[in-house]
Design brief:
alpha+beta, Thiol Ester Dehydrase, Chain A, 6 helices, ten-stranded antiparallel beta sheet, 10 strands, 278 residues
Length: 278
């Protein structure tokens, strides 16, 4: 059967995931952190305790979602449309979580179905919630089942110059390093597979671009303190090619910021960004 709209609200079984200090270091390197961010890229620098980038929640969380209950579909036509993280506490340098996932809203977009995949994770060391993740997936060719389209976005680009702007260079081999944090999709490493997907060469992971954007927000708006980073919500709008530049523009309104990420040609690659911080 195709996408099953009745799957909305279905809950999966809890799953556990652990990580080490080395995993946190590898993730930080994978999203471009380097010698100027030793709190995230080393564990033994004098007077610099190791800390974890908040966006690592995207590779640790997401577990327990009953994906098989969505029905049958062509996985090659699925797109990662959006990603949200909410942090309830600072991610420790090593630990274990238990995640419970469920299927959120399923919207009928006409030519596609939009599905929210939500997972909530508890730190087993403290028994307290650590973070929540929400992935919005678009299943092309699975719309038209007679469901609601869902609410329209109210996000708008502020009518003023950005308050902050950060530019990062991506490495030509960035995906080869990022994939070691878990996403081994050959679209990001195998030239032949990338050509089957319509690309001249492997593309960047969307969540790598997400992590690099999160670094800019953390250092610019939170003084590099992960404890102040509370949430980050985006829509992916265009693939990034390894070697591209990323320009992250931020508009601050109190303890919230709207942001947008563009490449060196001015193309928007992350849109409708909203971040909350303390």
């Amino acid at each position: 059967m195709p996408i099953n709209p009745e799957a909305s609200g279905l809950k999966g079984k809890p799953v556990r995931r652990s990580w080490t200090s080395k995993d946190a270091l590898l993730y930080a390197l994978g999203v471009g952190a380097g010698t100027e961010e030793l709190a995230f890229t080393t564990e033994n620098t004098q007077d610099t305790p190791q800390r974890v980038l908040p966006t690592m929640a995207v590779v640790l969380g997401g577990g327990g979602v009953p994906f098989k209950e969505l029905g049958t579909f062509n996985a090659a036509l699925m797109l990662h449309g959006g990603q949200t993280i909410e942090l309830f506490d600072e991610i420790p340098r090593e630990g274990e979580i238990e995640s419970t996932g469920y299927i959120g809203s399923i919207w009928d977009k006409g030519k596609a179905a939009s599905v929210e995949l939500i997972s909530e994770s508890v730190n087993l060391a403290t028994g307290k919630p650590l973070f929540r993740t929400k992935m919005t997936a678009y299943f092309r060719g699975e719309g038209g089942f007679g469901g609601e389209r869902g609410p329209a976005s109210t996000w708008a680009l502020p009518d003023r110059k950005a308050d902050h702007e950060v530019r990062y260079e991506t490495r030509i081999d960035q995906p080869l390093l990022y994939r070691l944090s878990g996403d081994r999709n050959p679209l990001h490493s195998d030239p032949a597979f990338a050509k089957l997907g319509g690309f001249d060469r492997p593309i960047m992971h969307g969540l790598c671009t997400y992590g690099m954007t999160g670094r800019a927000l953390l250092h610019t708006l939170c003084g590099s303190d992960p404890a102040r980073f509370k949430s980050m919500d985006v829509r992916f709008s265009k693939p990034v090619m390894p070697g591209d530049d990323l320009i992250i523009s931020m508009w601050v309104e109190g303890q919230e910021a709207r942001f947008q990420t563009r490449n060196q040609d001015g193309d928007v690659v992350i849109d409708q960004g909203l971040m909350k911080f303390e």
